Amino acid sequence: MTPLTSAAAAPALRIPRDLPPAPGVTVVEGGVEVSVYAGHAESVEFCLFEPGDVAGTTERRIPLVDHAFGWWFGFVPDVGLGQRYGFRVGGEWDPEQGLRHNPAQLLMDPYARAIEGEVRFGPSVFGHVVDDASWEGDGFARSDSDSAPDMPRSVVVDQSFDWGGDAPPEVTRSETVIYETHVRNLTMELAGVPEELRGTYAGMAHPATIAYLTSLGITAVELLPIHSFASEPFLVQKGLANHWGYNTLGFFAPHAPYAAAKDPQGVLDEFKGMVKLLHAAGLEVLLDVVYNHTAEASGTGATLSFRGLDNRAYYRLDERGRDIDVTGTGNTLDLRHPVMCRLALDSLRYWVQECHVDGFRFDLAVALGRGRTDEFDPDHPFLVGLRTDPVLSRTKLIVEPWDVGMHGWRTGQFPPPFSEWNDRFRDSVRDFWLADHRPGVPGQAPHGVQDLATRLAGSRDLFGTRDRGPTASVNFVAAHDGFTLADLTAYNEKHNEDNGEDNNDGSNGNRSWNHGVEGPTEDAQVNELRRRSMRNLLGTLLLSSGIPMVNAGDELGRSQGGNNNPYNQDNTTTWFDWDLAPWQEDLLATTRHLTAIRREHPALRQRTWAEGKEVHEDGSIDLAWYAADGSPMQDWSAPGQRTLQMLVNGAWLGHESVLVVLHGGLDEQAVSLPEAPGLSAYRLLWDSTWERPADGEVTRAGTDVTFAPLSMRAYAVTDPT
């Protein structure tokens, strides 16, 4: 199309200043200040559209004249709130040098606070020539096809909001219990939520949803990505869509389809309203964020924003201009570059200061810390920025400590104050309760209890340096990525056929055990043992030192039919089914009971390391380990050792001490409750053989009790009278 020519299309007014204004579009008196980074460009145009103009027939292009340090900027009069806009960038096209400027492409503002519409994938949104049917091309021939009719619009929105008396709950890390959930999955079929609000930010903040969340005893909701995102082209061609959201389009804009509101301003206000209401209920809001890659994929992917603005600045490229991919998505954002590093930090500050979120979980965080030599650097500028920023350093910062590049596993190697997803906890707990009992695995030998004990006590082998403490470990047994808790006990193999990748996607190393039958069964004995295994996994998670993270729906025994990678399943595979069977009601009651035990017994929530040292004149120590016969544990590494007793001393800090006993054998086991200084009896708090929580009896120290196969218990030290 031909851009309109009018007085309004004149160049932006020059600004008598030495430095460019704040990135993005800022409303000022009489118009807006515009600033965008395009460090290798020869021209940048600010493109305006009328609301509702999908075809782009009202486009007005305003050249940005001023530029300094790679930033193009200007004042544009008579533009204000509600304006739809984008950018077009001209310059050299030389893919082997990493230069992919193409003024035919309408580009999203990386700093846009709202995005309207979705990418309509087809040949036009690729900056290079592609086949009309397959959308494939070599990435070298520049396309002249105008992408405006198929691109979303960035939107100028009002940042003001009535926060009232909103204040962050500021839950300490030692008190934190995280609930990892998806905005849509939790509420799509929740009867108490009005149909028009289900699957939305408003639905997440509905009283019925909040009542459920607070009843669980969790302290924080960790939301799968809510940054504006796009589906991958190969999914679109299969009639599928990205459901999880790990494919970011805009780092400042909430994903519009998750809102009940239909206008861009309403979307932002609805998100803020959700945070406000969750805070009022005492719940923190953590965001799962993806600063390691974008929706543009590799050099043969679409040109939507960053690639067209400055491919060489925003992405990691090799000497031939090709993307370096340590994320498995085709591209990796280059946080070594000051502009990209600043963008990520600006984005995070925006969500804290303007949207009041309480922290973040960083997807594939090793990719964010790869330095000039491509090796992980704990002192990478981005990580230092997070640690030293007076706003961000006070929030909860959680990393996924791996990526898919060389030497990508870095659990325990991030500096304070980061907490880390602890995959060693996940694997050790699954091995002890599940994988060790799965027959037919070549070379498999049952694990002993030594590694399990290390995980129960906070994984000091991983997080013991730099005075990090047990809360550096975010413990989990299941997450969005992988089998649900119920599926861990019901499937030996993944069943991902519905994903459209011939069951080749998703992990093959699940450490699961189907208890003898693959999938659903009417066998009462198998189902009983599966339910006990679920309770064992939940009990180990919630009674261990560290920050526990519950995978949403696991408290209900939710199944995904053996699909361990439902990233493109926005349907009943991932939506919660709230029509609960009696056993699911029991499991929910068990989860609530376990979070209450954790909340009521600070001994389970250590902030500093227990060291097995004497803490009282009576000879009691802060953390003690015992074998099944009640004697101090000696034979840690024996493969046949399947019983472990952990006594956590709280008395020296004015709290009840707690004894956790785990028996991972397939036969009954006589266990002698340990005799130790300062204690004489134990009150049973919970037994994993209980289908539903009950009142426990008091047992004197030194008494032999019988543990059922594959079972665990929690006791509080008490007075026998």
Automatic annotation (TrEMBL):
Residue ranges of the region described as Disordered: 494-524
SMART domains in alphabetical order: Aamy
Gene3D superfamilies cross-referenced by the UniProt entry: Glycosidases, Golgi alpha-mannosidase II, Immunoglobulins
CDD domains in UniProt: AmyAc_Glg_debranch (cd11326), E_set_GDE_Isoamylase_N (cd02856)
Keywords linked to the UniProt accession: Glycosidase, Hydrolase
Domain Glycosyl hydrolase family 13 catalytic residue range list: 154-598
A molecular-function term among this protein's GO annotations: amylo-alpha-1,6-glucosidase activity
Gene Ontology annotations of biological process type: glycogen catabolic process
Pfam families: CBM_48 (PF02922)
InterPro entries, per the entry: GH (IPR017853), GH13_cat_dom (IPR006047), GlgX_Isoamylase_N_E_set (IPR044505), Glyco_hydro_13_N (IPR004193), Glyco_hydro_b (IPR013780), Glycogen_debranch_GlgX (IPR011837), Ig-like_fold (IPR013783), Ig_E-set (IPR014756)
Family designation: Belongs to the glycosyl hydrolase 13 family.
NCBIfam families, per database record: glgX_debranch
Protein name per Swiss-Prot or TrEMBL: Glycogen debranching protein
Annotated organism of origin: Knoellia sinensis KCTC 19936
High-level lineage: Bacteria, Bacillati, Actinomycetota, Actinomycetes, Micrococcales
